[in-house]
């Protein structure tokens, strides 16, 4: 019986902790003095752009409560890199990309390798075995990670189950008292 009380106390404490941590910060605005709830009118103070954050002033039309909301910078949205010029004699390629919104351009210079084969096929030719690229490694490690977490969860559950069995057996030996 005491085990049940302990488990219920633990679950109740966990539930109260979750509720207090999530609900406690849900409403941070003071109550509206001019009506049942705030009715905000928004005014843009600073317009956000790709590189700078913006500010919006929100004013309650009923009570005059005001707060400023900060809008994050949107960031550039670039197209794919496009080759502008290729210089085989100096082994250089010049590429350019442009922001879809503000048309800001970026240019980069890339050194051209002597062969156009990808690294996987080069690795296969050298070793005679199929190569493993980074994506194969990431996929296999993430699947391995899932299996490791599943094994850890099963191990933990078996520990709890064995502890419960031992405590129940000890309770029966004591004649039903304790636990």
Automatic annotation (TrEMBL):
<feature type="signal peptide">
    <location>
        <begin position="1"/>
        <end position="26"/>
    </location>
</feature>
<keyword id="KW-0812">Transmembrane</keyword>
<protein>
    <submittedName>
        <fullName>Uncharacterized protein</fullName>
    </submittedName>
</protein>
<keyword id="KW-0732">Signal</keyword>
<keyword id="KW-0472">Membrane</keyword>
<feature type="transmembrane region" description="Helical">
    <location>
        <begin position="146"/>
        <end position="164"/>
    </location>
</feature>
<keyword id="KW-1133">Transmembrane helix</keyword>
């Amino acid at each position: 019986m005491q085990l049940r009380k302990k488990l219920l106390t633990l679950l109740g404490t966990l539930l109260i902790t979750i509720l207090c941590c999530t609900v406690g910060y849900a409403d941070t605005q003071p109550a509206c003095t001019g009506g049942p709830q705030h009715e905000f009118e928004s005014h843009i103070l600073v317009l956000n752009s790709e590189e700078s954050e913006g500010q919006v002033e929100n004013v309650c039309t009923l009570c005059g409560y005001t707060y400023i909301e900060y809008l994050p910078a949107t960031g550039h949205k670039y197209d794919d890199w496009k080759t502008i010029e290729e210089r085989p004699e100096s082994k250089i390629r010049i590429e350019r990309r442009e922001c879809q919104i503000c048309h800001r351009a970026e240019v980069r210079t890339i050194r051209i390798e002597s062969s156009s084969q990808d690294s996987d096929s080069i690795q296969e030719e050298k070793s005679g075995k199929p190569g493993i690229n980074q994506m194969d490694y990431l996929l296999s490690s993430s699947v391995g990670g899932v299996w490791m977490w599943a094994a850890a969860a099963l191990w933990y559950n078996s520990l709890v189950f064995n502890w419960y069995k031992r405590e129940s057996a000890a309770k029966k030996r004591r004649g039903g008292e304790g636990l």
